[in-house]
# Entry
Amino acid sequence: MDSVTRILNIAEVRMRRVGYNAVSFRDIAAEMGIKSASLHYHFPKKENLGAALVQRYSENFMALLNTRTDSITDPAEKIAAFTRIYRDSLGENQMICLCAMLGAENSSLPDGVSTEVRAAIADQINWLARQYQAIGQADPVAAAQTMIALLQGAMIQSGLYGNADPFRAAEKQIASSLNC
Amino acid sequence: MDSVTRILNIAEVRMRRVGYNAVSFRDIAAEMGIKSASLHYHFPKKENLGAALVQRYSENFMALLNTRTDSITDPAEKIAAFTRIYRDSLGENQMICLCAMLGAENSSLPDGVSTEVRAAIADQINWLARQYQAIGQADPVAAAQTMIALLQGAMIQSGLYGNADPFRAAEKQIASSLNC
DNA sequence: GTCTATACGGTGATAGAC
DNA sequence: GTCTATCACCGTATAGAC
# Structure
């Protein structure tokens, strides 16, 4: 595995746990067993690392989303698959998704990172809105926004309590609203 | 207005905008026109300031909540009043509520602050759960958790876009679900 | 690619004068 | 209560050797 990938992997775990501001080059380097100066060879500035991380995160997310929903035709089922990715992403450690964490931190992020966060969320909303439109939702974009808000808020709550109960409660509500 | 109040006022605005970690004693002191050393007279450690801020925030919230809902008997109306406080709190500047911001940052917060955040959210959930129980919700706590998650997630989205559309979309969904 | 060495500002915090 | 002065640290970032 190449250095860039290893850096991004470590940065992802840490940033999802404590946020962008609380992660340092020194921490990441220490975990890799190298020096922080070496990180600057791959990512000149922290902003570059943050932007690249969000970009990779978003690409992986959309790719996984497409893979998992390619064979599904029912829009409601597609939406359910979307929430399942969020659940899997929460994992056993109640790791908040990157977009929720950096979304909260948004106004203290460097421009380059903030831009990528907005782009990543826009992709998700567009995808969701398309499904809601297929279902015949009156305001598909609003429905998509609300759904993202609920999932991200539920992740934060789950992180706060150290268990996935709040997230599961949110999932149930989504499931029941789709059966209406 | 006494110094402690002024400090807390400034800290609240800043922490709701950029989070706990991105706020410094120096920033607050500069805005007050004093030196950071003076802040330590009122709050020996940053953790003390954070904890006191969340405590005050929660007390004010619950007090306002009770004032606004005292004369309301219908539980669904009470819940609507709850969401209205969140909306007012979002304000014109899309200022994320303190609990959502610190909730996201939770795992990088000092214990004293983290504890207060959990206590504050627990109060809100208890209050909401009581209303949902009065309505006859099957799982009142889950409903309360989901509602808090949605409101907080919607605030983050609104902060991200710089407008209140995501929050309004969430409000609408809550309103319609209460009329079911 | 990674190292050592280093610069330099920011940060929480303390001691002691006023 | 607020000041000055100072501390020890941590943060990003750079230069140049290997």
Remarks:
- Chain B has a mean pLDDT of 97.
- Residues 46-178 of chain B form a domain with the Tetracycline Repressor; domain 2 fold (CATH 1.10.357.10).
